[in-house]
């Protein structure tokens, strides 16, 4: 009733339930686990069925006292417990459905399960040796029964400590893997973990520095970069940000998406909005967008880093800024040299910063690939691979940057990853590479094995000939 006290009445009360209906974008964390099993494997997806089974067992255990009772007795039990037991069970059930509806709710399921599971385990352990029974004397019973009860008493005291030690050990191991970067390196997109560590805010401030030096506005940004653009340009508004629900569906479908194709909608939008700067995230728009603007004489690259590619419109009004901030072949070589120096210094970085810096280096290498500097990117890619053979993002860069003489080594890496894949793309990429070399029979075997790991993969299922 209190929630109805808002300017929009019942519509305001129900609005949070309909917020996802206006996204019109494929948001990674809003997808269901079943959709992810088509393409990737990771520990969260692997443990979700186990968590769900435990949740169902806990829910069934919570309902056991009421199974044989009459409806009146059940109602009386609920009143007597003040609704605590059924409320907890209902919350657990809702969390279970939410986790299977959207992957972002999986942590909610784990957290909701902890108190209920602890309660059930406490009840079970109390039944190992009956309360009040003298554990050192069992009366006139057989030797075997005496032995069994002694074991029960021993386990009653030992099991909790074993469980505590196991939980602490696993958590310490996971914490080390997260900080050291092993967890972030191995598991693939689209739900690859973010590297853990202390970051340097100044590396996100490039646009603010350019703005202070006269970077012209208004600015076109993409979904990935929009919020950071607004942060750097405040109080000036940006074009778009990372809140899909804040824009109507028509905007995403009829303007933003088609504009990224750099076709007629892009030209119409330029004329209407008069963008003077394009500041886009390189991982967000990919190579095609960057290379198309590089080839367009109306735009000039003025900045490149691990995240941003910034272009300014080539007009007389912007000529002075373009002269002072030209980013040509010489600047690209300097950028590659800075990345190489960071790579050499990586071993000297502190543990709590090392993986963040490694991630920055990977995306700086990708920036070099996006601007066509493959000859500068390849030595850095290979050195990163030798340093981190398990780095999934580096495997992608190996494939797209390797010169012809390095193809055999890259094929060997792809073969190892496709044999025990964590992503369907690893199977598809290696199979396609084999087909390109005319090794069709080997490609068939790779696809068939891949279907074992990804039975729901639509791409693998479409390969009917295999």
Compact overview of the structure:
By secondary structure, this protein is mainly alpha-helical.
CATH architecture of the largest domain: Alpha Horseshoe
Mean model confidence by pLDDT: 82
Q: Biggest sheet, strands in spatial order?
A: 1-2-4-3
Distance between the termini: 60 Å
Percent range for β-strand residues: under 5%
Helical segment count? 22
Tell me the count of domains. Answer: 4
> Secondary-structure element sequence?
HHHHHHHHHEHHHEHEEHHHHHHHHH
Characterise this structure:
- With 466 residues, the protein is mainly α.
- Mean pLDDT is 82; it is low at 72-83 and 133-141.
- The chain contains 22 helices and four strands.
- It has helices spanning 9-18, 33-36, 43-67, 71-80, 84-101, 106-126, 143-180, 182-186, 206-212, 226-233, 249-259, 264-273, 282-295, 319-324, 329-344, 351-370, 374-387, 392-401, 407-419, 424-436, 440-453, 458-462, and strands spanning 219-221, 277-281, 299-304, 308-313.
- A four-stranded mixed beta sheet has the order 1-2-4-3, covered by helices on one side.
- It is 63% helix and 4% strand.
- It has four domains: 17-127, no CATH class; 130-186, no CATH class; 201-326, no CATH class; 334-462, Serine Threonine Protein Phosphatase 5, Tetratricopeptide repeat.
- A hairpin with a 3-residue loop joins strand 3 (299-304) and strand 4 (308-313).
- Helix 5 (84-101) packs across helix 6 and helix 15 (329-344) runs parallel beside helix 17.
- The radius of gyration is 29 Å and the shape is globular.
């Amino acid at each position: 009733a209190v929630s109805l006290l808002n300017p929009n009445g019942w519509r305001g009360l129900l609005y949070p339930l309909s917020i996802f209906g206006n996204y019109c974008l494929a948001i990674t964390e809003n997808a269901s686990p079943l959709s992810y099993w088509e393409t990737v494997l990771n520990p969260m997806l692997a443990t979700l069925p186990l968590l769900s089974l435990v949740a169902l067992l806990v829910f069934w255990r919570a309902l056991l006292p009421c199974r044989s009772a009459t409806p009146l007795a059940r109602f009386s039990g609920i009143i007597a417990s003040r609704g605590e037991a059924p409320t907890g069970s209902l919350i657990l059930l809702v969390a279970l459905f939410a986790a299977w509806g959207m992957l972002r709710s999986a942590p909610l399921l784990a957290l909701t399960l902890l108190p209920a599971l602890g309660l059930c385990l406490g009840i079970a352990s109390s039944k190992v040796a009956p309360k009040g029974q003298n554990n050192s004397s069992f009366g006139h019973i057989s030797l075997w029964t005496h032995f069994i009860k002694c074991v029960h008493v021993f386990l009653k005291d030992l099991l909790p400590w074993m469980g505590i030690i196991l939980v602490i050990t696993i958590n310490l191991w996971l914490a080390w893997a997260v900080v050291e970067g092993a967890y972030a390196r191995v598991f693939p997109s689209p739900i690859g973990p973010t590297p853990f560590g202390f970051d340097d805010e100044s590396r996100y401030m490039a646009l603010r520095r350019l703005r202070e030096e006269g970077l012209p506005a208004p600015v076109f940004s993409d979904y990935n970069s929009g919020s950071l653009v607004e942060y750097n340009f405040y109080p000036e508004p940006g074009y778009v940000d990372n809140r899909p629900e804040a824009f109507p569906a028509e905007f995403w479908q009829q303007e933003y998406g088609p504009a990224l194709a750099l076709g007629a909608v892009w030209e119409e939008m330029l004329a209407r909005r008069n963008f003077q700067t394009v500041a886009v995230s390189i991982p967000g728009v990919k190579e095609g967008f960057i290379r198309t603007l590089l080839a367009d004489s109306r735009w000039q690259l003025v900045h490149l880093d691990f995240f941003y590619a910034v272009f300014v419109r080539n007009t007389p009004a912007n000529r002075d800024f373009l002269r002072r901030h030209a980013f040509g072949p010489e600047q690209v070589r300097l950028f590659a040299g800075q990345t190489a120096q960071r790579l050499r210094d990586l071993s000297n970085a502190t543990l709590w910063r090392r993986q963040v810096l490694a991630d920055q280096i990977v995306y700086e290498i990708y920036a070099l690939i996006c601007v066509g500097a493959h000859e500068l990117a390849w030595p850095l890619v290979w050195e990163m691979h030798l340093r981190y053979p398990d780095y999934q993002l580096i495997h992608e860069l190996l494939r797209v940057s390797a010169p012809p003489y390095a193809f055999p080594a890259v094929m060997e890496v792809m073969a190892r990853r496709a044999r025990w894949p964590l992503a369907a793309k690893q199977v598809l990429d290696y199979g396609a590479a084999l087909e390109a070399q005319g090794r069709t029979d080997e490609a068939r075997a790779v696809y068939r094995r891949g279907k074992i790991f990804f039975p729901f993969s639509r791409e693998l299922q479409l390969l009917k000939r295999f």
